[in-house]
Every structure is written in structure tokens, then in C-alpha cells.
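Thread: "does anyone have the structure for this chain?"

Original post by V.I.:
We have the sequence but no experimental structure in hand. Need at least a predicted one for the grant figures.
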Amino acid sequence: MGQPKQTSSVTPLRAMSRAVSFAAFGSLLLGQAAFAQSASPQLAGTSNSRSAASSDYRTANNAAAGFDDETDDTATPASNGTSANADDASQRPAIPDAQAGDDITGSILDDDIRRLNTREAPIDETLPRRRTAVSASTAETPGIPIGTFVLRPSVTQSINTETTKDGNTRQQRAFLETDAAATLTSDWGRHQLTVTSEGAWQQNISGEGEEQPSFKVNGDLRLDLPDDTTAHLTAGYNFYREDTDDPDAIAGAAQQSDVQEFSAGASVQRDFGILRGTTALALTRSIYSDATLANGTTVDLSDRNQTAGTLRGRVGYELSPALIPFIEATIGRSVYDETRDSTGYERSGHAYGAKAGVEVDLGEKLKGEVGVGYEMANFEDSRLSSIDTATLDASLLWSPIRGTDVNLDLQTSIQPSTTAGESGYVSHALTTTVSHQLRDNLVGTMIGGVTWRDYPSDSTINDELVYTAATGLTWNISRYLDLTSTLGYELTTRKEGTDSQQLRAGVGLKLKR
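Reply from O.Q.:
Generated one for you, C-alpha cells below.
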């Protein structure tokens, strides 16, 4: 017969003490593991330690009493270490079967309850990114699509008043002026063609004064070639009426000569690592019409027709993309249609120049170039003295604050003359334009300039200074309509002779598309 089952109370007590020891040790191990987990595993670890203690107690007690894992229901221990009968066990809710890898905590908890750092609810609709407001004064019109081009035209109709005073002579007139402009730009994946045009037509409605029509159009075809090479092919046409204050104007003429200029050019620029080379050729053809005197007779000015060409070369060294020092050399040739003009002088000649400077590109804040050099022009007629001068050229665009642009332009050039016995003069021209956005749809512009016409010391003509000042306002009524107003003043002073001045004011509407 088998050994009788132990029913003494001593063996269960010893088993219970061992179970408590094992439970404490297991609780310590489980506590260390639970400390490294998140808040959810901490809850599960605490319950698991209590479950492990009960399980160890049942195992030790059954082993000491001679029971295996499948003991009878008469001695089922409760989870708190006390005995429970079969009725209690039957009344206790059953723990659902655990899935593989799940921890049994002794209570039914869903995932959200176990987590202390609960998951945030998803955002179904996100707020759209705030877009920078587009200024009405800087917004570009959509234009008119024409095939692979976009045309942006504009027309300005204004009414103006002008007062001109030359010595004791005073003239005043009111006139209508129509200004038209257009830009045609290609929309190609490679290369680009840009054509710009603008013109002005004037019609006097009262008073006396010479009308000043003008028109010009320029085209630029940019070719993006391999090996960091860019080429430009340019062509243009410029029509204007010579100004009465021009040194070559006919004195006392009722209408000055109409001038037509045809231009063409080509340039190639290539990057050689840190070196940048540019070669350019420019050709200009000038044609002068007859001038009309006050008595109705005309003066033939065809002897001023000429063709001029300039070859330019530049080499730049790229210290950085924002700073490129350069050296440049030019050579030019001018040929008049007639070997001698109406006064018997041979006006054809040569021109030479060289300069050194630096290109600056600091993005929207500052860009442009500054250069200093030397220029000389001589003529085929020995009676005409050569002209030479030091040059200082600058073209800078500066934006000190957002909405304010300052454009500085300084040019030194030699201007040949057609006056009998005169070879020409040196022009030093400084112009500054300040544009400021007063409001989102209101822009103010101020222009100031001075031009010094420096004649050679042996010239019979005295130096002249020309001062210009102008201001204007542009109110953007809508994206397609602007209200414009202008006020300008010009003063020409001479060491000998009378000064001349001109005052002009106008207001107009600009329609753009």
C-alpha cells in the first residue's frame, strides 16, 4: 500500500515559510525588472509578483503535502495566502485565457488603462500653413499666355503740365501723354527669350512747347550651353527726339532731330573653376533726321549718321559667390557715313578703355559692381584733340530694410560732339533712386541726380552742370489698376550764358495685365 498522506500541520507551516522566502526573492527580481519598464509594465510587474507568490506557495505546499499540480479542490489557497474552499473558488470569476506573451495581472485591464502616458488622439484636420501676405504694390500680374510665352502689357494715360524757362524765354504747355509698355517672356525648360518695350506719345492741348515722343524695344536670348557656359544674343531699337538742352541740338529749332538707333550684340560667359571669363561684342547704328527751324526751313543732319562697335573682355576671380574682383578692357571704333561732316571735320575715331573693380552679390540686401579705370578717344582729324579721363563707374542696388530699395548709378563716359571745332566732352553722371513702400498699396519714389559735362581745356564751350529731382506716388487701386502722380524739376547751369530750367507735374491712371 502506498504511504499515507501527511495531514500534520508542521509540514504545511514549513512549506509556507519556504514559499514566503521564495516569494520575497521573486518579488525582488520582478521589482528590478519592473523598474526598467514604463508605467504600464510597472502595474503588470506588481501584479505578477503577487501572482508568483501565490503560485510558489501552492507549489511548495503541494510538494510538501505530497500533492502534484493537480490537487483536489478541498485545499485551494486564495491569492492572499489563506485557504479557500471549493465554494469560494467556484464563486470567484475566472481569469480569461492569456494570449501568448501577455502578462496576467489578476485583473482585466485594457491597454489604455494600463498606460499612464496615453496616446493622443489623431488630428484629422491640420491647420493650413500661414502664407506670407503678398503686397499689392509688388504682386506680379498673371499676364496673357501666348503659346510658350507670357505677355504682360500696361498702358498709362496721364495729363501733365510743363513750364520751361531758358534765359528770358518762357514757355508753358499742358499735354496728354500715353505711355505703353510690355514684357514678353518665354516659358521654356532651357534657354530664355525676353523682349521688353516701352513708348510714349504726347499731344499738346494748350500752350507752346515741343512734344517728346519716344519708343524702344530690346530682346535678349539667353542660351544655356554645356560646361558652365552662358551666351546672350541681343538686339534693340530706340527712337527719341533730341532734347533742346543737348549740346549737339540745333539752337532755335522748332523741332529737333528724330534719332533712330539700331543695336545688336553677342556675349559669352564661362566659368573656369574660380575664374570667370566674359567676351562681348556690341554694334550700334545711329540715324538722324532733319531738324526744323522756327521759320519752317530744315537742316540736314545726315552727316551725323554713324556706326559704332565695341569689343569688351573681362576676367573675374571668384573669392566667394558674393565677391568677385575683375579686370576689364574695351576697344571701340566709330565710322561716320560721310568722311567729313558739313563743317569739314573727320569725326571717325577709336576708343580705348580699361578698368578694375569688384562684383558684389549679397542677395536682396546688396548687389552690383564698382570699378575704376581709364578711357581715351581720338579722332582721325588732327584738328580735333583727343579726350582722356579717369573713370569711376558704379551700379548698386541696396535694400536697407524690407520695402525700401536704393538704386545708385554712377557712369563716366566720353561723348563725341558734332559742333564745329569741338571733339566732345566727358560726362560724369550720378543718379540715385529711392523707392519706399509707404503702405501695402502705396509706393513713394524719389529721384535725384547730377550730370557734369566736362569739356577739354581748349574748348570754346564752358562746362555745364545738370541737376534733376523728381518724386512720385503710385497707389495700387487693384491688381490691374494704378493711380500715379509725378513732380519733377531740372536745372542746367553754365559758367557763361543763361541757365535753363524745367518744371513738370502730372497725374494718370495705369492699366496693366
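V.I.: this helps a lot. The longest strand covers residues 149-166.
O.Q.: and Confidence is low (pLDDT under 50) at residues 1-23, 28-118, 123-127.
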